[in-house]
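Below is how a single chain appears once it has passed through the pipeline. First comes the sequence as given, then the structure the pipeline wrote out for it. We keep one example in the README because the format questions we get most often are answered faster by looking than by reading.
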Amino acid sequence: MAKSMVIAALMLPLAGPAVAQTFDGRFQIEPVHNGALRLDRDSGAIELCTSVEDAKADGWSCEEVVAPNLEPADASRALAAENRQLKRRVVALERRLKTIAALATDGLPASERAAETTFSEDARRGIDQAVDVTGYALKRFSDLYRSLQGDEESQ
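Resulting structure:
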């Protein structure tokens, strides 16, 4: 029995992630493009394991990328508390959104809001003139910018 455990342990680095996952239920191995991620289910630690081809030895090297900071039970309670807090925040934001929508429409029925958005002919002409002036100003600023940029490049 002990001999078979030693042989299995020695073959583990050669077998790859599939055997590592079934050999010990504590770790979950997921392949990634440059190696494998190893999740320690007991502590929550995550390590990036990469193949090492060294003149002295071949094998795997694992570097911790996420350190556990809570016990599993504490982590579960922390996630549940965060979930409750986020649900309360969603409810508050939905109420605020309804209030903003009501303020934006001034509480008027849809038929009255549509009537308010129709403009007289004079108002439309005024809007068109404002758009024309704005377009003219933007063109002038653009021309000025290009001329200043040309002056800077010629120096």
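The CA atoms of residues 29 and 35 lie 10 Å apart.

See the next section for the split statistics.
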